[in-house]
């Protein structure tokens, strides 16, 4: 049970939240006793849960005491047990999250529109969360249902399939998601009494969310600059009496190595300039999106360095953050944090385990159905740009398009970031429906576009951002077996793709080609703006159906090598 004080329940806050949508909600808590000495406030943080009710099958390597440790991490029931243990003895504690709690989820959650994951996180004691890009995968109407509850249908799947859904027991914040009138989708901020300290919380998602979601899912909303929105809301919270402000933001950094219990090795990425611009009132930034774990300190626009945290992905870590509030000086005197592995040493919490078991059992007959057999190629090395799993999906989509529209379709491309799992589950020689659903959970349709060779090269150039060596902007495009290409990231912008071959023959800049993309890419997702201008020849069904049909006859897992990185490092 949570030990934080005076945290308002979600149900009693709904009316106030609705009124706040016009300006970025600041809910003012009841007065608390004034502290006579320094007070410790605990903030427990997670991010990028992605509906992982069960313990993910793969292991995670992380740095611990200078050594690399590899463990199986996560699972909702283990997460709840870990959170309970961390709260023990804490008089002032709050639990927060930085987006992507739902979406791109395993079958047991996704089949039920992520309702069980939302329920599990509420049972685990989550209080406040920012939205992330994957919260928008099913559209804003469905996201409102996730917050508020109910069984109104907004997708092809039927809500409330097992039981009525009351909505999230935590509060979603969306301070930089605004409509044409400037109204935010959800409150932008909330003020909570945590022990004797008034803590303001701001919730944001990355500005690029619109490029990561099918356009129809965010129609009518825009995503404003993160630092500008955070600073505006921080000023509002300070005016309302906040002692300190915590920013929950679904944007992150990159570190190497990628998973760390403490420390910040080689930090880079878009979160850095955002933090550097933040108002001094913001003492802590809880981040996400990159699926990495780190504890960093970054200088900002005045004031002491801010603590920046991230807790990996899938509930594998919890960041245990301690703020020491000095009531005499009216400032945060100290702040520290550590990422704690959710490794099962504390067991599980029975009520959450029962919830997970109920939904997994209901999904099992569908998830366990074998859809096809797979044979290793002998070269299925995952350490390559496109991965065998992405190549398999691209081959399946080309096959589906040729079946639907004829053999004249030349090639298919899949964004590697849209292939959510590798082929570890194929070790037994079979793939089940649940396993391929986890690989392709978005339900995208397949569109065949007509492009000249020059236009195809332009699209491939859109993969790369920054100057030498360039980096992928969002994702790399993995091609079907009919096409290969190479690139040199040290070359000038617009001239990084060095060769494109179709069936072993260089493409002709003036010749027209018919190429398969999912509707997300065809609509300009992941920054492929030029594809929006291309003519659609036809459609070829849904990505998951294409993969299932392709596997039905048995396949050999493709190896890497369709992309060649010629960059001299």
UniProtKB/TrEMBL annotation:
A GO BP entry: nucleotide catabolic process
InterPro entries: 5'-Nucleotdase_C (IPR008334), 5'-Nucleotdase_C_sf (IPR036907), 5_nucleotidase/apyrase (IPR006179), Calcineurin-like_PHP (IPR004843), Metallo-depent_PP-like (IPR029052)
Top-rank taxon, per record: Bacteria
UniProt GO cellular component terms: outer membrane-bounded periplasmic space
Keyword entries, A-Z: Hydrolase, Nucleotide-binding, Signal
Domain Calcineurin-like phosphoesterase: 43-292
The keyword ATP-binding is assigned to this record: no
GO molecular function: 5'-nucleotidase activity; nucleotide binding; UDP-sugar diphosphatase activity
Signal peptide positions on this chain: 1-32
Similarity comment: family membership: Belongs to the 5'-nucleotidase family.
Protein name stated in the entry: Bifunctional metallophosphatase/5'-nucleotidase
Organism listed in the record: Alteraurantiacibacter buctensis
């Amino acid at each position: 049970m949570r030990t934080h004080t005076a945290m308002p329940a979600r149900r009693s806050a709904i009316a106030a939240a609705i009124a706040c949508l016009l300006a970025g909600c600041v809910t003012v808590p009841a007065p608390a006793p004034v502290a006579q000495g320094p007070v410790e406030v605990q903030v427990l943080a997670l991010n990028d849960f992605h509906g992982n009710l069960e313990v993910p099958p793969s292991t995670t390597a992380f740095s611990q005491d200078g050594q690399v440790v590899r463990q199986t991490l996560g699972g909702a029931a283990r997460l709840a047990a870990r959170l309970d243990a961390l709260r023990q003895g804490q008089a002032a504690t709050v639990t927060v999250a930085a987006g992507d709690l739902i979406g791109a989820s395993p079958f047991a959650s996704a089949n039920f529109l992520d309702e069980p994951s939302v329920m599990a996180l509420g049972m685990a004691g989550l209080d406040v969360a920012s939205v992330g890009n994957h919260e928008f995968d099913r559209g804003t109407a469905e996201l409102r249902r996730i917050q508020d509850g109910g069984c109104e249908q907004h997708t092809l799947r039927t809500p409330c399939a097992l039981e009525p859904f009351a909505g999230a027991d935590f509060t979603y914040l969306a301070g930089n998601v605004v409509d044409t009138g400037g109204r935010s989708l959800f409150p932008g901020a909330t003020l909570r009494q945590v022990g004797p300290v008034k803590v303001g919380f701001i919730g944001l998602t990355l500005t690029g969310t619109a490029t990561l979601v099918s356009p129809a899912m965010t129609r009518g909303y825009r995503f404003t600059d993160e630092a500008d929105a955070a600073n505006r809301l921080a000023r509002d919270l300070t005016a309302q009496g906040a002692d300190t402000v915590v920013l929950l933001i679904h944007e992150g950094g990159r570190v190497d190595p990628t998973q760390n219990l403490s420390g910040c090795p080689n930090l880079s990425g878009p979160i850095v300039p955002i933090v550097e611009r933040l108002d001094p009132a913001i003492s802590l930034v809880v981040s996400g999106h990159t699926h990495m774990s780190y504890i960093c300190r970054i200088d900002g626009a005045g004031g002491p360095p801010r603590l920046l945290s991230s807790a990996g992905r899938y509930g594998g870590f919890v960041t245990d953050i301690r703020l020491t509030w000095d009531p005499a000086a009216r400032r945060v005197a100290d702040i520290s944090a550590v990422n704690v592995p959710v490794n099962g040493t504390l067991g599980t919490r029975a009520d959450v385990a029962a919830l997970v078991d109920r939904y997994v059992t209901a999904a099992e007959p569908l998830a366990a159905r074998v859809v096809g057999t797979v044979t290793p190629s002998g070269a299925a090395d995952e350490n390559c740009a496109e991965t065998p799993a992405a190549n398999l999906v691209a081959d399946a989509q080309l096959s589906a398009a040729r079946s639907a529209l004829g053999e004249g379709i030349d090639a298919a491309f899949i964004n590697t970031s849209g292939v959510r799992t590798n082929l570890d589950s194929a070790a037994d020689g079979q793939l089940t429906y649940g396993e391929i659903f986890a690989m392709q959970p978005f339900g995208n349709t397949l569109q065949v576009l007509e492009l000249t060779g020059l236009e195809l090269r332009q699209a491939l150039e859109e993969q790369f951002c920054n100057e030498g060596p360039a980096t992928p902007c969002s994702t790399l495009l993995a091609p079907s077996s009919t096409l290969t290409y190479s690139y040199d990231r040290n070359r000038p912008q617009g001239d990084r793709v060095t060769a494109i071959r179709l069936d072993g023959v260089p493409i002709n800049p003036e010749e027209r080609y018919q190429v398969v993309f999912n509707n997300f890419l065809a609509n300009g997702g992941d920054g492929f703006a030029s594809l929006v201008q291309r003519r659609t020849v036809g459609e070829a069904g849904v990505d998951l159906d294409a993969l299932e049909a392709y596997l039905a006859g048995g396949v050999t897992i493709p190896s890497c090598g369709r992309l060649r990185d010629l960059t001299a490092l």
